[in-house]
Amino acid sequence: MSRTVIIGANHAGIAAANTLLDNYKDQEVVMIDRNSNLSYLGCGTALWVGRQIDDYHGLFYTSEEEFAKKGADIHMQTEVSHIDFDKKVVYAHPLDGKEDFEVSYDHLLLTTGSRPISPNVPGKDLDGIHFLKLFQEGQAVDKELAKEDVNTVAVIGAGYIGVEVAEAAKRRGKKVLLFDAAKTCLANYYDPEFSSLMEENLKEHGLELHFGELVSEYKGDANGRVNQVVTKDGNSFDVDMVINAIGFGPNNVLGKDHLELFANGAYKVDKHQQTSDPAVYAAGDCATIYSNAADADTYIALASNAVRSGILAGHNIGGTPLEAIGVQGSNGISIFGLNLVSTGLSVQSAPKFGIEVQYSDFEDLQKPGFMKNNDKVKIRLVYEKSSRRLVGAQLASKADISMAVHMFSLAIQEHVTIDKLSLLDIFFLPHFNQPYNYITMAALNAK
């Protein structure tokens, strides 16, 4: 038997454990996690908090008991105090008062995920300031929003989580102030021509936007509860609650002094998810991932990437050598009925990887004008100037245009050129699209 110890039992760790337990009978799997629950779909927190779904129970897709049935030795509410990488021993401390223990490994898989970025500003430890990653944090935010004396909510950070929880708070009847140091929302995924559509959407639904404003201080009342947000330019805003959604960084505490790290501190892994220590693998939000669009290692914290890399790590540890095919970072968001999806690089992000790009925009109704139920679609295709290969795509519509991004993801992966897309075989039926499809029209309009 070969023993694999997995530290971290959320998406990547679960995917790896399932892969090992279902396919490799010679594997002994030990799972350790400091949380009391596993498999929480944090991307659904805003849906639950905003009362768009009935409750949170469906956000858990497996349990500790399920892994125990499969034969895993699972330890929840257990913290790893340190790892002896030379002796291949993990030292663990149960948080429920049980005796400390140690476990040796043949292979170690680090799936410790990410940690919320906390701004180091005065007042950061005041009561009423919340993060939103763990299930317990979602419960705390939900409880706060239920209070009658919580009327004004400040959300710090206008990325995906910030925008989603801002919508949730507004749906709960709160006044919402949304802050971001960037000049627009969703800046990591969309160019201004697309993020501005979301900005207008948020304004139309009554959110107060403060983009380009860096929060520099929190002030509190006599009881130590936050009651004011102060920005760098000296403006202050009265609030009853703060939700911090600035972003996440890799949780590298256990291996940062032993393993090779990426620029942002993520564990550097090869195409087999193997770290600089041959006995140690890493997957999910604590590790790097290869971007086909950028043709380089990068860091993209998405649940889909975590699952994919966890499966890959499981097979490689189990003895089936598999190489990662890379990712595009495909993503999407739906706020107050406006849908935005993207994959690959934007015009703004491409220069960070030394890629000179051009782009082609197109906007039209999704279906012929005589169709009653119809919505506008805006599309941008981003391609490398020299090779003309597609490196990114962005779409926006009140219609569900999400499936199109999967095609663009494959096109980026396979280095398809913008010119090949221009004559792509796309069917036409008035129920679905136009005879001059927005996908081919955007490609045809390329320089």
UniProtKB/TrEMBL annotation:
Keywords: FAD, Flavoprotein, NAD, Oxidation, Oxidoreductase, Redox-active center. Its EC number is 1.6.3.4. Residues 337-433 form the Pyridine nucleotide-disulphide oxidoreductase dimerisation domain. The keyword Ligase does not apply. Residues 3-310 form the FAD/NAD(P)-binding domain. The keyword Flavoprotein applies. Pfam families: Pyr_redox_2, Pyr_redox_dim. Its cofactor is FAD. InterPro entries: FAD-bd_OxRdtase (IPR050260), FAD/NAD-bd_sf (IPR036188), FAD/NAD-binding_dom (IPR023753), FAD/NAD-linked_Rdtase_dimer_sf (IPR016156), NOXase (IPR058076), Pyr_nucl-diS_OxRdtase_dimer (IPR004099). It catalyses: 2 NADH + O2 + 2 H(+) = 2 NAD(+) + 2 H2O. GO terms for molecular function: oxidoreductase activity. Belongs to the class-III pyridine nucleotide-disulfide oxidoreductase family. This is NADH oxidase.
